[in-house]
Structures are given as C-alpha cells and as structure tokens.
Design goal:
Elements (H helix, E strand, L loop, with lengths): L2 E6 L3 E6 L4 E6 L11 E3 L5 E5 L5 E5 L5 E5 L6 E6 L6 E5 L4 E4 L5
Antiparallel strand pairs: 1-2, 2-3, 4-5, 5-6, 6-7, 8-9, 9-10
Length: 107
C-alpha cells in the first residue's frame, strides 16, 4: 500500500490509502487538543508512532486502533517522533527540546 499519515488537532491520526483516497485507519488514544504533533510510520510498515500532549509517545500497530506502547518519561508535550531507517529505534522530542530514544518498544 501507499500510505499517507495525517494528524490534525482534536482529530487524531488518520492513515490514508493514496491509491483509493480512503481513510483506512484512525488512531485516537493519544491527546491532541492544541499542538501540532507528528506521526511516523516504521520502516517495516507495521507500526505508527505519534506524539501526545500527555507527555508520552504512542506506538500503534497499523491494523489496530489500540496503542501497543505508551512511552513515558518526557518533561513536556511530545511534538515529534521519528524512526531510525535501519535500526529498531524511535526518537522523540518535546516542545521544550528534550530528546529521548526508545529501542525495546519498537522491536
């Protein structure tokens, strides 16, 4: 599939199939009321990660709307998430600049 993720304030993350222009999945367990947050699809194509206003990052399996992992320990809103292209590693960044790396949760 050719996917595109979209995250809008108060609307969660939507995953679109670009060939059919259909929304395939919607992920809404994370908090997103006022900040622009990023989402990232894992290199293997099985997971999607998103930031959250509850000072955590969430990892979902693409075919499920329930989160697999809630990554805590951040000092502020998690605004950015990014997967390493080759290693099982997720980087998160808060709006105050705190950078964290998670390896076990993305295996």
């Amino acid at each position: 599939h050719l996917y595109r993720s979209e995250q809008a304030v108060t609307d969660g993350v939507k995953l679109w199939d670009l060939r059919t222009s259909r929304c395939l999945y919607r992920f809404t367990s994370h908090q997103n009321r006022s900040h622009r947050l990023s989402a990232a699809i894992s290199p293997c194509g099985r997971f999607i990660a998103t930031g959250s206003e509850d000072k955590a990052a969430y990892i979902y399996e693409l075919r499920s709307s329930s989160p697999l992992h809630r990554l805590t320990g951040h000092s502020d809103v998690v605004s950015t998430v990014a997967y390493h292209p080759l290693r099982p590693l997720l980087a998160t960044c808060t709006i105050n600049g705190q950078l964290r790396f998670f390896e076990e949760a993305v295996r």
